[in-house]
Design a protein that fits this description.
The protein is about 35% helix and about 25% strand. The chain contains four helices and eight strands, in the order βαββββαβαββα.
C-alpha cells in the first residue's frame, strides 16, 4: 500500500488500518474492504472509498503517483517508485492478505515441458513478490 510522496508530505501518515478509512483511495476491482495482518498475524480490515475504480494495475500505479489517493497494488508495480522515493509505503507494520493464484491445466500424467516451465516460473515469481509485500519476513 502506498501514497505519493507529495500527498504523504501534506497529510499525517496513518499508523493503523482503520485510519485510512477516511482517506481517498484508488480502488482496485477486488473491493472496498482491504484486509491486512500485522506482525503477529492479527487480522485487520478497513472499508475504503475513492473516486477512481480500475482493473488496470498501471492506472492504479499512475493515479497513486499523481496523488489521487492511496493505492493497494502488487509490489512489482510500485517497487521502482518506492525505491526512488516517489511513493511512500503506508502501514509498514501491516501487510495485505494474500490472494491465491492457481495454475489450471488439463489433467495429464505427464505435463509438457512448456506447462511445467510456466508453472515453475509462476512459483519463482510469487516467491519474489512475497518478499516485496511482506516487510517483516
Amino acid at each position: 500500500m502506498a501514497i505519493s510522496k507529495s500527498t504523504a508530505g501534506r497529510e499525517s501518515s496513518p499508523s493503523l488500518p482503520n485510519a485510512i478509512a477516511f482517506a481517498t483511495s484508488v480502488l482496485p476491482p477486488y473491493g472496498e474492504e482491504w484486509r491486512f495482518v500485522d506482525r503477529k498475524g492479527t487480522p485487520a480490515s478497513v472499508r475504503v472509498s475513492g473516486n477512481l475504480v480500475t482493473n488496470s494495475g498501471e492506472t492504479l500505479h499512475q493515479a497513486a503517483r499523481e496523488g489521487v489517493g492511496i493505492c493497494l497494488a502488487p509490489g512489482f508495480l510500485i517497487r521502482d517508485d518506492l525505491e526512488a522515493g516517489r511513493l511512500v509505503r503506508l502501514l509498514p507494520e501491516y501487510r495485505p492478505v494474500e490472494f491465491s493464484m492457481n495454475a489450471v491445466y488439463p489433467h495429464r500424467h505427464h505435463l509438457s515441458a512448456k506447462v511445467r516451465t510456466f508453472i515453475d516460473m509462476l512459483v519463482d515469481h510469487s516467491a519474489e513478490q512475497q518478499k516485496l509485500i511482506n516487510p517483516y519476513s
